[in-house]
Please model this.
Amino acid sequence: MSSILKRTPPIFILLAIFLAFIGCVSSGDNSKIASEYEKFRNSLPPAKWRPTGVPSVDDIGILSAQVYRQTYQFLQEYISATENNRYYVGLMNEVDEIKKTEDLDDCAALQKAFYNIAEADKHRPEGEEPALPRVIEGYNAVQALKPSNKLPALAQMLPVIADIILRAKKLPDEVVAVVKNDPLRAVFLAGSVSNILTQLYHTQKMVQYIKMQYTRNQEMKNYMQD
Model:
């Protein structure tokens, strides 16, 4: 085994790892998206790209940084609108729990979560603050971001990201062709490819999460009008 590794150029080992990582960039279900969002929501790195001199890598690197920045701005707006509205955030989290335990779609789970809060308010002790008005505050804060305008933009971003991912999958072969006799440059380019994949992974998760939450907020209009 060790002799095989010694004969294998480092660039091929590194790029094999990156290809495996690319397989992790997938759509995922809503509850998984929400869970992963919570893990990196406060620790996302800034978008960055350093030119490599390889046109195919640079083109995709620039695109990945651009869509990351745009998505990151959407996410920060949503966080700013909801971070002080824990009752609204709690409602969104309850929707995920109901979906997992009762096998309901988004709309039905949202309706049940909304009903549960309204019913709980009816039985709160006198003097205790009801939750429903605070949920509505959060809803209004998100509505102020005009999700009806942003949902089409978010929907359009998903196929763009998918296209960049498909193009990124071809990078390892292109990099090998460029640097097969230059191991130092191979390491530098391998790091650049890794950066592209990381940004694409984060971007895809952010877009899916924000789109899901904005869609739910739009569905809440039905209950606001009742």
